[in-house]
Amino acid sequence: MSSTESPSVPAASVLPKVAPVRVGEGERLRSVGLPGVTLSIRSRRPAREGLPPALYVHGLGGSSQNWSTLMAELDGVVDSEALDLPGFGDSPPPDDGNYSVTGHARAVIRYLDAAGRGPVHLLGNSLGGAVTTRVAAVRPDLVRTLTLVSPALPELRIQRTAAPTALLGVPGVAALFTRLTKEWTAEQRVRGVMALCYGDPSRVSPEAFQDAVEELERRLQLPYFWDAMARSARGIVNAYTLGGQHGLWRQAERVLAPTLLVYGGRDQLVGFRMAGRAARSFPDFRLLSLPDAGHVAMMEYPDVVATAFRELLGDTGRLSTDAEDADSGVAAPGAGS
């Protein structure tokens, strides 16, 4: 594994020069070269030595920035890293062009194996929830706990508001959409995304909105932006159709790690009713229902999600920073009951 560190250096020199990626206070960004893929990793300086490691995986069209607020909330609890999936954020496309759920999961596994930080507390949102479910099922040795925020697990009847996202995976639709919306400003696009993803878009601060606009303007300059979106959307649709041992719900049943499930009552992309299906599928689960949240509860209610995460760690003894303490069931001070 090769790694270069910089607050704003593009992940690959062959890519066109675009505006630098935003790095929040207390964060750093580095590029990690792995076989077949280069990943951008966002991290925070640990509050103290010996904290258990955590890795965060974003959803379709998102980036590691989606986790910045929650990562800050969990300072002193875990040693946080968030990655940009291949083709998103500051990570260039994968060498093989594989944007399937399995392809993304393979990238996460390669990073964890190379970094040697596992087992980690693994957190995923939307597409990242599907990816991390697959990682936890096939490599239980890499996962201490699993936290899923509105995971994109198969629904027989998707919500009408989620249909355009699914259609993005149909060949040619992304190119058509690009042509039809070429006059849209970045502000218009961001408002549309926030209306879709947030339970209450008015909760977004003017500063956060402007940051999102600047990030979208940066990413729209990348020649692979729409291709990564379309192929990843297609990957989700394809994962929904898989049956047998490779089906995501079947893999959920094989997850050994204690799992926190977070669902929003105003989620327009993942049906709130899926919380019941998830609760019946993951063997060791805790459910956090947020009636006013949308699709990105970790951005809308980071304090509530952080509290539930700390309680998960306290309940399972995973707050311990020492393996022997974890084995004996001794939780660190401040653990939830």
Short note summarizing the structure:
With 337 residues, the protein is α/β, with parallel strands linked by helices.
Class of secondary structure makeup: alpha/beta
Low-confidence stretches: 3-17, 162-170, 172-177, 321-337
| Share in β-strands | 15-25%
Number of domains: 1
Strand order of the largest sheet: 1-2-3-5-4-6-7-8-9
Average pLDDT level = 84
Q: What's the CATH H-level superfamily name?
A: Alpha/Beta hydrolase fold, catalytic domain
User: What is the name of the CATH topology?
Assistant: Rossmann fold
The biggest beta sheet is recorded as:
9 strands, mixed
**What is the architecture at the second tier of CATH?**
3-Layer(aba) Sandwich
Shape: globular
Could you tell me the number of beta strands? Answer: 9
Helix content estimate: 25-40%
Tally of alpha and pi helices: 13
- SSE ordering: EEEEHEHEHEHHHHHHEHEHHH
| Distance, first to last CA | 39 Å
Identify the CATH class.
Alpha Beta
Q: Radius of gyration in whole Å, from Cα? A: 19 Å
What's the arrangement of secondary structure elements?
Blueprint: E1 2-5, E2 27-34, E3 37-44, E4 53-57, H1 68-73, E5 79-84, H2 101-115, E6 120-125, H3 127-138, E7 143-149, H4 163-167, H5 173-180, H6 186-197, H7 206-220, H8 225-241, H9 248-253, E8 259-264, H10 274-281, E9 285-290, H11 297-300, H12 302-316, H13 323-328
Parallel strand pairs: 4-5, 4-6, 6-7, 7-8, 8-9
Antiparallel strand pairs: 1-2, 2-3, 3-5
Helix pairs in contact: 2-3, 5-8, 6-7
